[in-house]
Amino acid sequence: MKVTQKAPAVLTGRHFMNGDVACAEGALAAGCTFFAGYPITPSTEIAERMAQRLPEVGGIYIQMEDELASMNCVLGAAWAGRRAMTATSGPGFTLMQENIGLGIITETPCVVVNVQRGGPSTGLPTLPGQADVMQAKWGSHGDYEVIAYAPASPQEMFDLTVKAFNAADTYRLPVFVLADEVVGHMTERVVIPDASAIPRAERPQPPFPPGEGLLYQPLDGALVPPMPPVGEGYAIHATGLTHDERGYPATSAEVHDRLVRRLRDKILRNADRIIEYEEYLMDDADVCVVSFGSSARSARHAVNAARKRGIRAGLLRLITVWPFPGSHIAVLSERVKAFVVAELNLGQVETQVQRFSTRPVLGAHHGGGEMLTPEAVLNAIEEAS
């Protein structure tokens, strides 16, 4: 398919748009030129927007027959040098897991947006959930680490999509934008900066010419190997099998252990650079509410209500759910009396807070289908205090 390159038609300025549309515009601002996907509520507006906008910037939109094929296309486009993306919801995210694992072991940078809804299975197609947190971390088999951003507003749907593309290229892996239906369909003001203000990370390139060096040998003591685009003369071999530094299959336990440790450590050793969170009224807090996505909006309201009742509550809003800020939870547990975890599932992030806290951990949970209410979070705060 021949694509005519056009002048970028990226939006700037202030706009009133929903989170899904903001996500698509964030992808375009980040330089995404390829989208493959399959419509699924509540993420379909992302695909619709990309179908409209990608031809305007010389990009390619393709609707595949299912989510398995969509993920495969995204991996192929990334190896061809494109910034590539897909968007889905719970059932589609499940179908993508095998090829997400392929993206992990081949170290293929791309972005996967999951606008969560109620599950399991088909569940609640049009209503919110936040129960894909553990699936994002453990959905594919084997040992690996991931990066997952959790936007709490349409503005963050834009901003964190840009960050996801940069993290994908920096660390060479599929990166998740773990949104939810409320944020995806919420309409608010979104400020899109000038293109010159959009940060752009580049994939590490080999410091040696074609025919020399090892393409899966990390550079200069780092843990991320170079990634030249296919077609530039380098002999590239990408395989889902365990492979050595040449990229060739190797079935020894020694090679496998070395490979999966590096796939894990390239994220964990850079966790301090990757992890993001926001604190609200935490300086003197006795009760720390941990939340993310749309639930964090309810949690903030509950914290304000608790303060009016004389309870010193504060909010730790997770911007990155993975890597999890366990060390920060451990530090906070030295000065707060208890944690409350507010999430639209039955306790997935709560289990992670329990791992690192020396204080009591209570949950404000709902199985999905409606936004978590401030009253539910406030009741848990009062119980914890």
Verbal overview:
The strands form three sheets. Strands 2, 3, 4, 5, 6, 7, 8 and 13 form an eight-stranded mixed beta sheet that branches. Strands 10-12-11-14-15 form a five-stranded mixed beta sheet, with helices on both faces. A two-stranded antiparallel sheet has the order 1-9. It has 385 residues and is of the alpha/beta class. It has 13 helices and 15 strands. Helix 1 packs parallel to helix 6, helix 10 crosses helix 13 and helix 11 crosses helix 12. The protein starts with 12 loop residues before the first strand and ends with a helix. It is 37% helix and 21% strand.
- Provide the residue-averaged pLDDT: 95
Number of helices: 13
Give the overall shape: globular
Termini, distance in Å? 62 Å
What Rg is obtained from the alpha carbons, in whole angstroms?
21 Å
| Largest sheet report | 8 strands, mixed
Low-confidence stretches: 1-8
Q: SS-based structural class?
A: alpha/beta
